[in-house]
Specification:
single chain
């Protein structure tokens, strides 16, 4: 039996429009597949299963530590990228979010 999962509409908030909510949902689904390790996989499964909210995750030590570690690594990777590659990724993000 497949577990119920919340949809992207659950992540629309006053500060997060539908495009950003869809991107967040897609990111959580990717984490739930385990590519960033078992701690973030568990966190994503908890959020997608509706058992835990995003803010609650940030107040949970193991999840907060894993998110910080991954964000720090992503930032370091971003800084190492050539400017042209960074601009390409930024343009793609703007396209996905529907911003200019």
């Amino acid at each position: 039996m497949t577990e119920h999962q919340v949809g992207p509409e659950e992540f629309v908030t006053p500060g997060r429009d539908a495009a950003r909510a869809r991107l967040l949902h897609t990111s959580l689904r990717a984490l739930a597949r385990g590519g960033a390790g078992p701690v973030l996989q568990e966190m994503a499964e908890e959020v997608l299963g509706g058992r835990m909210g995003l803010r609650e995750c940030l107040r949970t030590g193991a999840y907060a530590e894993a998110l910080t570690r991954e964000a720090t690594a992503a930032h370091a990777e971003w800084e190492r990228m050539p400017e042209a590659e960074r601009e390409h990724h930024a343009a793609e993000a703007r396209r996905l979010l529907g911003t200019s």
